[in-house]
Amino acid sequence: MNRLFLLLTSLSLAFNLAAVSVGATSRPRLIDPKATPETKALYYNLGRLARKQILFGHQHATEYGHGWNGEADRSDVKSVTGSHPAVIGVDFSGLSGRLPQAIEQAKESLRRQIVDTYNRGGVTTVAWHFSNPVTPQTGFYWKDSLSAPAVASLIPGGSHHEQYKEILHTIGSLANSVRGADGKLVPMLFRPFHELDGGWFWWGKPHCTAEEYRSLWQFTVSYLCDSLNVHNFIYVFSPDALFKTEAEYLERYPGDAWVDMVGMDNYGDFGRNGRYNMPAGIAKLKIVSDYARKAGKLAAFTETGLESIPDTTWWTGSLLKSLKAEKMQLAYVLVWRNDSRSATHFYAPYPGHTSVPDFLNFYKDEYTVFETDLPHLYRRRRFLFF
What we know:
- The chain has helices at 3-23, 37-49, 76-81, 100-120, 151-154, 161-175, 210-227, 246-249, 278-295, 314-324, 356-364, and strands at residues 54-59, 64-65, 68-69, 87-91, 123-127, 188-191, 233-237, 261-265, 298-304, 332-335, 368-369.
- The chain is an alpha/beta fold.
- The protein has a single domain (36-373), classed as Glycosidases (TIM Barrel), CATH 3.20.20.80.
- Strands 1-4-5-6-7-8-9-10 form an eight-stranded parallel β-barrel. It has a two-stranded antiparallel ribbon with strand order 2-3.
- Helix 10 packs parallel to helix 11 (356-364).
- It is globular, with a radius of gyration of 21 Å.
- It starts with a helix and ends in a 17-residue tail after the last strand.
């Protein structure tokens, strides 16, 4: 082996070590030091992609769609574009407040959806619309004069704390049983207690103090990680769009030690009920993106959409234009579900819908990433520079 090769190899190694050292304080890192290699790789790769592109997601995309339910390898997005969304949304709502047999059926359905997405190379994000444990008959929505303010009852010392731990055991058992064809545990973006700044869910702002909310979040993360050994979750904080400043956005934030990704749900500024306020929507996204960069987190547009998509150019004229504004770095954007029975409750186009031509332009844009565009997200590649 000649001296020149040895010199170049040494310089290369020194350069890489220096680069790691310089970037160590600013590069996003997962809050769980025991996160699986695949979870770490997904987080890293999402951050790399977000510098120039954004993954497109759709809630319940492969479970059901406009006029169909439970068909293998189908989604409305795939029927229109030839590709599934890069991000598939599922929900842990069926893992509590039901009979044991129903919970097991929900776990099996979830396991199948999550594994299939992973095996295809896609990403799973998890919402959690779970029934109020104190007044389960009221479901996950807050119902005046019927719902009980449950957050204080679930945190340590609360009357339903042990019951809440049992609910987390169910989630933990699912998380630790979802393995891909490669035998690896499937990473998931876990997004509990979302839209917390509104009052429509029982964990919302009017129904608990900021300290109670933060305590519930922190206990949830610590119990899953430390007691149940769940190490394949990426924890996502996502208020609704009821803020105008960073301080308002962070009002109930659990803290940087407890969150991996920051996001926002926003339908109101993007055409809901015919009302558009794109500058406000962009400004809020920028608050989220800027905070993520500052805090060493990833950012995402965790929920949005226009029900029934009456604006046939919404995809490129509103959504894409907003995503590209201000040079933001967002890992993904997700639109809500397509109901299988409702003629009007859908947020992604299906074959024959009037917004299909514009959606195809959205799909073809180099900025958007769908499942067939994805690199291998669950393996981190290292390169030497010469």
